[in-house]
């Protein structure tokens, strides 16, 4: 196991890299999470992984932006940089979805090459309400 940031770690299972988000309570897309996702994907590729599975701890997948960061100076990487890295990864990226995938979390899921979800998973773009 490699702790990439305080909220994201990288584990391997054979040739598969698991990028694991653990940012309670809802795995919001803080800059720590964005940095960890980007670093995890880059490390997995450079280590020769055959594929990447994005997994989230707790009760939900990524449930959107970290609203505590609204109004402050943006810190990189941006969500767009993370999304571009996922879409352009030279190996398959799979999003394993449970709970909710909202806003930016839904966008992250859509950028994965494949998505697998439990039947109870919920998806949405609620930004219009923020």
Task: Output the keywords.
130 residues; alpha/beta; 2-enoyl-CoA Hydratase, Chain A, domain 1; 6-stranded mixed β-sheet; two-stranded parallel ribbon; 8 strands; 25% helix
3D structure, described in words:
The protein is globular, with a radius of gyration of 14 Å. The longest helix is centred in the N-terminal third of the chain and has 16 residues, at 31-46. It has a single domain (2-129), classed as 2-enoyl-CoA Hydratase, Chain A, domain 1, CATH 3.90.226.10. Strands 1-2-3-4-5-7 form a 6-stranded mixed beta sheet, with helices on one face. A two-stranded parallel ribbon has the order 6-8. The mean pLDDT is 93. Helix 1 (31-46) packs parallel to helix 2. It has helices at residues 31-46, 79-87, 104-111, and strands at 2-3, 8-13, 16-21, 51-56, 93-97, 100-102, 114-117, 122-124. With 130 residues, the protein is α/β, with parallel strands linked by helices. It is built from 3 helices and 8 strands, in the order E-E-E-H-E-H-E-E-H-E-E.
Write a compact overview of the structure shown:
With 130 residues, the chain is of the alpha/beta class.
């Amino acid at each position: 196991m490699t702790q990439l940031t305080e909220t994201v770690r990288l584990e391997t299972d054979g040739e598969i890299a698991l990028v694991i988000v653990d940012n309670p309570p809802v795995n919001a897309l803080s800059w720590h999470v964005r940095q960890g996702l980007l670093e995890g994907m880059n490390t997995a590729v450079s280590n020769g992984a055959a594929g990447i599975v994005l997994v989230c701890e707790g009760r939900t997948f990524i449930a959107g932006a970290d609203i505590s960061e609204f109004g402050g100076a943006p810190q990189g990487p941006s969500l767009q940089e993370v999304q571009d890295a996922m879409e352009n990864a030279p190996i398959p990226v799979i999003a394993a979805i449970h709970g909710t995938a909202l806003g930016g979390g839904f966008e992250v899921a859509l950028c994965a090459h494949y998505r697998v979800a439990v039947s109870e998973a919920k998806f949405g773009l609620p930004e219009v309400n923020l």
